[in-house]
Design brief:
189 residues, mainly beta, Jelly Rolls, six-stranded antiparallel β-sheet, 2 helices, 13 strands, 49% strand, elongated
Length: 189
């Protein structure tokens, strides 16, 4: 690429007011491209109650890059398992929502909120606990997985919530973008 072409690209990538070079990170680009989706829900739980969410990654060449957010008004323990099989029946299924409301692209990732547990739970891939018991009261909290996890295709994942509070309200959201892996230059092997 010539010096002129590079200078032209940099000139067009500048903010109109400050003249600073502007950049868009890839997840934000995926939103504008119509390849970014989310799924959210909430539930109210009694103390020690368990609640399950099934995530079925489709058998496709696109990779699902996922992050999670959970907000609670009390104590919650959360675990995640990969390659869960059997059971996981019932629950409420919802279609993923495209962040770009102008896009007609859809996602074939399947979620079931409030399903039963798996007969073989699989490999634990994460766990955390949020909220707390302080001064005879319960304090809420939030937890998230900020670093995206690239899910295996054709694999079922199971999220398990365990309430540590009576009347626990749990709001959760999964957000992801989908992309086909490239075979070009790599940052590292």
């Amino acid at each position: 690429m010539s010096e002129f072409a590079i200078a032209n690209i940099l000139q067009n990538a500048r903010d109109g007011v400050t003249k600073a070079i502007t950049m868009v990170d890839f997840p934000h680009h995926a939103i504008h491209d119509g390849n970014s989706f989310y799924q959210e829900s909430f539930t109210t739980m009694s103390d020690t109650q368990e609640y399950f969410v099934k995530v079925a990654a489709p058998n496709t060449e696109k990779q699902m890059h996922l992050v999670w957010d959970v907000d609670v008004n009390g104590v919650l323990e959360l675990g995640g398992w990969e390659t869960a099989v059997g059971g996981m029946t019932g629950g409420t299924t919802k279609a993923p929502i495209n962040y770009n409301r102008n896009s007609t692209k859809g996602s074939s990732v399947a979620f079931a909120h409030g399903c039963s547990s798996a007969t073989a739970i699989g490999t634990k891939i994460h766990e955390w606990k949020v909220g707390g018991n302080v001064f005879k009261g319960k304090f809420g909290g939030s937890g998230n997985r900020r670093d995206e996890m690239v899910l295996l295709p054709n694999t079922t994942y199971l999220k398990k919530f365990i309430s540590g509070s009576t009347g626990l309200v749990v709001s959760f959201r999964a957000a992801w973008y989908e992309l086909r892996p490239t075979t070009g230059l790599k940052v590292a092997d």
